[in-house]
Amino acid sequence: MAEQISSLYNSVTESVAAALSPSTAPVAGKHKFLLYGKNGWIGGMLIELARANGDEVVLGDARLENREAVLAEIEKVRPTRVLNAAGVTGRPNVDWCEFNKQTVIRTNVIGCLNLADICWQKKLHCTLYATGCIFEYDAAHPLGGGVETAFTEEDRANFDGSYYSMTKGFVEEMLRAYLDHLTVLRVRMPISDDLSPRNFITKISKYEKVVDIPNSMTVLHDLLPCSLELSRRELAGIYNFCNPGAISHNQCLEQYKKYVDPDFTWSNFTVEEQNKILAAKRSNNELDCSKLVNALPDMRIPDIHTAMAECMQRTKKNLDAQGWKPTPRGK
């Protein structure tokens, strides 16, 4: 009997091994990520992070609005996890979306829902790098209210001042039907350790004037590793994906001036003045990040003021290594 059981076990093991070719069988403890958004800013960072951990990353080629192509790619690749960092935010900013609404719909709405639905049908965990720019301060969530009145994951979008944010709010509401196999990350004003044009600090450092309003923000050095852990652990649901707390534009630029460019200067203007020069309004809010912090107690997620200071110090070190010198304003 023992020999028969051993023979059966070996036969089953060989069958499983044959079914999982070397290109599809994940290494024990590692994952095979299928990533959409390979040419994007956040997508590029995710590729490096996952591969540095020993995970396999397959770069998705299918256009997300093409459901048949996405389905065929998933069935061919057979990933253990899917990451969706694809999407359009507009160049140079979200004002672009006001004049390219059909493109926004195809990628940010149709494509996003296609991928979520396919992954749900296949019981395959998917992580979406979404946005928290779907809220604005109101009577129940006042400016300066702190974490006690900050928006939680249960709150529904209340900001439709831009076409980009309006569609993102619509999509998040529909995605709630897929949350048993989907993680939605509300990214806000993402910040990197360099002067990438997508970096929130780079953007505001180039503006002639900035508003000065406390906001939740996402320091990518701290948060992107957390996103991969949420995926690996299949911690589904909506997460406010920011460093705890809120920080104002002036406080950000003060850190930039302290560590990166000591001669940097700027001036402020009001939201009303800002609205006059923009095609779309901008979201301002504070998100409660306690759900994220509690979900990953073994991961370090510093408060936004600590995170900003650390980020600017890393930025300075990286720029020095590149031989970068600040350019005075007006030149």
TrEMBL record:
One GO cellular-component annotation of the UniProt record comes to: methionine adenosyltransferase complex
Question: What protein name is recorded for this chain?
Answer: RmlD-like substrate binding domain-containing protein
Gene3D superfamilies in alphabetical order? NAD(P)-binding Rossmann-like Domain
Question: Which biological processes are named by the entry's GO terms?
Answer: S-adenosylmethionine biosynthetic process
**UniProt domain RmlD-like substrate binding: residue ranges:** 32-208
Q: Which InterPro entries match?
A: dTDP_dehydrorham_reduct (IPR005913), NAD(P)-bd_dom_sf (IPR036291), RmlD-like-bd (IPR029903)
Domain of life from the UniProt record: Eukaryota
Task: Fetch the Pfam families from UniProt.
Answer: RmlD_sub_bind
Q: Name one molecular function that GO assigns to this entry.
A: methionine adenosyltransferase regulator activity
User: SUPFAM superfamilies under this entry?
Assistant: NAD(P)-binding Rossmann-fold domains
